[in-house]
Amino acid sequence: MEKIAKISVPGGVRLGSVATGVRYRGREDLMLAEFPSGTSVAGVFTRSNVQAAPVRWCRRHIGGGRARGLLVNAGNANACTGRQGDAVAKACARAVAKRLDCPISEVLLASTGVIGEPLESKPLIKGIESAYGCLSGNKSRWYEAARAIVTTDTFPKAVSHRFEADGASYVLNGIAKGSGMIAPNMATMLAFFFTDAKVSKTSLGRLLRNAVEESFHRISVDGDSSTNDSVLLFATGAASEKPLSSKGLRRFGEVLRKAAGELARLIVVDGEGARKFVTIEVKGAVSKPSARRVGFAVANSPLVKTALSGEDANWGRIAMAVGKSGERIDAARLAITMGGVTLARRGAAVVLGGSDKRKLSRHMRAREIHIGISLGVGKGVDEVWTCDLSHGYVSINANYRS
User: What is the pTM of this model?
Assistant: First the structure.
């Protein structure tokens, strides 16, 4: 999979990235985005009951549907930091609002990094001043912004699409960070989308929720949901004064779902220590939601994920995970495939011939693995995306704060 896109530039968006030294040395870790007056915004946030200060800030202010600025810092999550964390969030929003000459309620915030460590506002406010001084719409700023928001990611994640709607040309860009603490209890990471189309806040919210449901809600690296998960979508309207028509909105929704799916896949590819990208396709469920829940029971099983890391086609572990999901199945009709090779049919093992054994072995050594599961109780179909669980995941997370 391509790790970073060829970037086009949506009108009305200016970006700046700088190093603050809050946690990292020798790399940019703060990104500021500026939008023109009238930019609409929508967001989706973590469902965790422990929410970071920036998430709470955004929840309070995004209802207005307008945005002039976005500030993102990496290295410190500003989560579980009490009143001090809220004060830091407000101080940063105030500093951005002052620079952009806008209401503080039109500044949105996001943070990622270590949870529970105090965060000082001074280096961030100094960084805001520097980032404001280098704001630009140049293509290079998009690559810099994608790099500035990462933590344990091994590569920056960005997508860019040009699309036609209502006889005009538009751009949609997206950047994201995510590698660990990834589970679909909303968005599972930070992701930001920017378009120069003119879209109302109501339409933005609906289209964003649909896109998240078919992308970020399908992924899991380790089954853990973050305190900071946020997905924000900004529409500047700089490419046309006319709002998108109903037909134009449908086209925009298609492009947004595609972009979100691409970023979601990149997050799984970059799962901490991961060597395999795994698609789990479930059919024959009583409903689509049931199929997805079965898929995640398999995707989040350490026994399944470690077997995949060892390139072991251990379908018994998959059957175990299906059974523990609590969803309705017919064990006597359960079928499991890997790489198109049927391993179990009618709830029992299939004896493989030599050609199937060789095909299965090649598939298990590949970077992308496909698992097919048929439950035999209905017509519900869905799929989820995950990765293997390797020694690398343990090493990264055992040494995360050291």
Answer: 0.89
